[in-house]
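Q: For a teaching handout, I want to show students what a protein-ligand complex looks like in C-alpha cell form. Below are the inputs, and the small molecule is iron/sulfur cluster. Please produce the holo structure.
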Amino acid sequence: MSGVHKALRQPTPKSGAAKRGRWAQTMISKGLPSKPLTKQSLTKLLRAEKKRRGIPQSQLVFVGIHNIAQWWWCGMYSVLKSQRNELEFFATYLADRVSLALSLDQVDTIPTAAFELLEVGAGLTLADLELHTKSSTQAQSQDIVADLISISPAIDKYENGLAVEMAQAERYPKLRWSFQWNDFVLIGIPDGITKKIVYEFKASSNEHFFRTAARPIANTQADLYGLFFGRNEKRVQVYIRETGEVITLEGPIDKDRAISTLRKFASVVAGSLPMAPKPFKCVSCEERDACTIRAR
Ligand code: SF4
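A: Here is the structure, written as C-alpha cells, with iron/sulfur cluster included.
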C-alpha cells in the first residue's frame, strides 16, 4: 500500500484475550486522527470512493441490510430511506475496515490522503474479522474508530432503536461487517450471531402488525444476515407490546427470499416503481415528501 508507512511495532501480547484486547485498543487509539472527520470530508470521500469504483455519483452504493428488509413494509420506503442514509452507512463501512486494519497491524495510522484511506483494509473479509474477534474486543475497536470517522455511529441506531424492548432480547455476541453484492456494499449487524445462527429481535404493537409487517421484515432481515454472514439457521423473536408476549420463530435461512428481496430493491434503485402500499402507511411516513407514489 503506497504511502502507508509502518512504524516500529510493539510485540503482540502472547496470552490473555483481555490483554490482547487492551493492546489492540491502545494501538488503534494511537493510529487515529485527533479530530473526527466532518460531514463535508466524508461526503468528499464518498464521492472519491464512487469514482474509484467507476460508479456514477448519483447511484446508491452503501446500504444497510436493515433498510433493505423494510421492503416488506414499503418498497419505496426502503429505497428512499437507504438513499437518505447512504453517507452514514459509508462511514460505518469505512470505520469497520480501518479499525480491523489497525487492529491487525496492517497500518499504523489512518492516512490523510483519500486514495490511501479508501484502500485501507481492502481485501479484509468476514473471516478475518471472525478470527480476530475470537481474541480481542473488535466491537469496541469499531466504536472507537466510528466515533472519529463517522458523523454518528450510523448503523447501531437503526438496529438498537427499540431501546426499552431490547431488554427482552436474548444476548449473543455481535458482529458488524460489509458485503459486496453486485454494485452495492451492504452493511449488516445482526442482533446476535453464534457459529450456527443469526438472531433478530423486533417489536410490534399487536398481533395484526406482527403477522403483516414485523414477521416478514424480521424473517427477511435474518435471511439476509444468514446469507451474508454464512449461517444456515435463524432465531427471530418479536415482542408484542399489547400483550407483553415474545413470539419466537426458528428455521433455516431462506436464501431465495433474501435474494429476491435484494433484486426487488435493486430494481427500484434502477428506476422501477414498486407497488404502492396501503394508504395508512403513508400518513406519518418520514419519506413522504420525497415519495412519488404516496397516497394523497
Ligand atoms: S409515503 Fe407511502 S409509498 Fe411513499 S415511501 Fe412512505 S409508505 Fe411508501
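A: Two things your students might notice: Residues 35-274 form one domain. Residues 1-29, 151-161 have pLDDT under 50 and may be disordered.
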